[in-house]
Amino acid sequence: MIVGHVVFGVCQWGIFVVVARLGSVEMLGQFAFAMAITTPIVLLANLDLRTVQATDQTDRYPVGDYISLRIWTTAIAFVVVCGVAWSIAGNGAAASVVVAIGAAKCAEALSDLSYGFLQQHERLDRMSQSRILRGVGSFIVLAVTLRVTHNLSLAAAAYAISWLVALACCDLVMSARLLASHGKRLRIALRPSRGILRLALASLPVGLYSVAVALEFSLPRLCISNRLGDAALGVYAAIYSLVFVPMTVINAIHSAALPRLARLHRQFDWLSIHRLTFRLFGLGILVGLVGILGTYLFGGTALKIFYGREYAAYAHVFVVLMLAAAMRFVSQAAVTVVRAAQRFWLILGVQVGTIVMLLPTVIWFIGRWQFAGAAYAICLISVANAATQFLVAAAVRRNCKH
Q: Cα(399)–Cα(111) distance, rounded to whole angstroms?
């Protein structure tokens, strides 16, 4: 899982490097803007069915219900993305990039459901192989297209096509084979049924939570774009793309631990839950400390090497953003425990509170400290979010024991 997530994360970070090197700061800003617009829309439509499926250790819902619901919601999400692109049609290039990235995100949504089925049965090797294929393939296709055409719209379209090919040739094939090996029959409903509606209601809180997390990343970008322009957004996106490298390690570890924790909850094995949670917490601290130290010592050099001399002037912002990410690395242990217990409404409430505090804080800090203010605001909110998540996790564990 770590290998798959790291390779995929590095490839996605490499795309930002390629756009910065082969394009321009404004082009990188357009790419980051398209990501910021499409990600919350598609995540809301996803309802984070992968988490529900991975923690469904009793097969409460048939596989066909998951697939049917995801197809319907993905189609709706793509229509909404196209509507958003049409609303900004005054900038034709930006609109076409939004549509292309939206198509890629919709393909990813269908692959994500395949990952949920693989994760549920702890076939993490197959899941990682697919992530490596998608990451490397999309990076090569986008880089070559941008190098040849110098057109971000065409490069984004090629990026979307590569993910559709990976979905058809890899993810669907692996899922079909795993279904057959477990003797499960796949029935996809063309019309919403009661089972699909029940699944949608059960998935709603965790889906809203994933949207709230995406907004936590997207809102600062939108504020920077609105207040400081596309060039400043391009710099911010370039710096934050480096933060995602250690974040992929944390995501891999917690993805592997989630179905195991869910099964331990069903078995009421509190000692094993405690041990696994403590290990997740310790790994979060370790990765966070390494990230902060590495950024403090080599952040400016890394920015200069990967993006260019003008980016190295923002090394202090890089350190602050890594500090904020480290708080998320640590608190992710608490979030995973609550998700494994399927107490989705609780983590949603905490994240909504975070979003409510985030927007005015970012706006005020940007007004006072300009570009660096966004990083200061994110760091402050991350500390408050981490403290609250640990309190909620402790309450859930006490409740489950009683």
A: 35
pTM: 0.69
User: Which residue is listed with tokens 């069903």?
Assistant: 266
The Cα 374–Cα 23 span in angstroms is 25
pLDDT in tens for each of the 402 residues of the chain?
788 878 888 888 888 888 878 877 777 777 878 887 888 788 788 887 777 777 766 667 777 777 888 888 888 888 988 888 888 655 667 788 888 888 888 888 888 877 777 777 777 788 888 888 888 888 888 889 888 888 888 888 888 888 888 888 877 777 777 777 666 665 665 666 677 788 888 788 877 887 788 778 778 887 887 888 777 877 887 788 788 778 878 888 888 888 888 888 777 878 888 888 889 989 889 989 999 999 999 988 888 888 778 788 888 889 999 999 999 888 888 888 888 887 888 888 888 888 888 889 988 988 888 888 888 988 998 898 888 888 888 887 777 655
> Given the structure tokens 């669907």, which residue do they identify?
172
Q: What is the largest CA-CA distance in the chain?
A: 63
Number of CB atoms found within 10 A of residue 254's CB: 22
Q: What is d(CA 112, CA 76) in angstroms, rounded to the nearest whole number? A: 17
Whose CA is closest to 6, among 114, 131, 124, 94?
131
Comparing C-alpha atoms, which of 58, 41, 48, 80 is closest to residue 204? 48
DSSP code of 190?
S
